[in-house]
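Student:
Attend to each token:
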Amino acid sequence: MPQPEDAVQWIIKKCLPRRFGIKRRVMHAWKFGTAKYVVVSFPKSGRTWLRATLTFYWAERYGLVDPPLLEYANLHYLDRRIPKIYFTHDEEPNRTPAELGRDKSRYRGKHVLFVSRDPRDVTVSLYFHRRNRDHDLEQPIYEFASGERGGLRTTVEFMNVWAAALRQIPNSLAISYEAMHAEPEETLARVLRFLGEEPDPVAIKVAFERSRFDRLQKLEREGAFASGRLTAGDTTDVDSYKVRRGKVGGFADYFDAEQQKQLNEIVRTGLSPDAARFAHPTP
């Protein structure tokens, strides 16, 4: 069933041309401008899991029946107590560290929630996403992870840039994927308070039960969310799932001892002290 939309959003969708990415750029600029809250993360840092837990939390809290996966204002249109939230990766991830933008001044008037994850796990998850879902990557996993473009060095520098930027954003909160695993209810409660909601403990428990990884994978197999954001590339291959494994420190399963040593060194020497404080990389 179509959801109600702001008139401006309808006009952008119906009237602007697709060529040269005009429609997409205008739509994203408008969403950014009209959302109070912005979630920033490097790809594969746990954003889908956060979307799912918030979706199921608000479904339980406000009695939404089979809502779509949280996307900008779709849940806001179902219940105005739910805020508009703009999700962004901020950068094109297939860049070298030097190519990443440093100026984040446009975010200073927003409430920014930054989601981080051990950059080694991010790199492995991104590799499988690009190989099995985007189909734009064929090189071996270690070659990608240790390379200069889009691999571990890029992820580390993205975290460094944002760790510095958050100091200049008055309303900001940094959470980690690892904290969502270790202290799920406490972490979600922090996020909800940041989003202007007094947490409901019962709804939080329900949200995490419904967003267990086995359940999210089942939803992927079934194509339960109409947006297509949570849809498996190949239902027989778990490495093609949007929700793949959810394992903290799982990067180590894909590299030999010497490769792990080299990747650990990239993190040790490259990650700034500020970024390391919220990245929680495992030993």
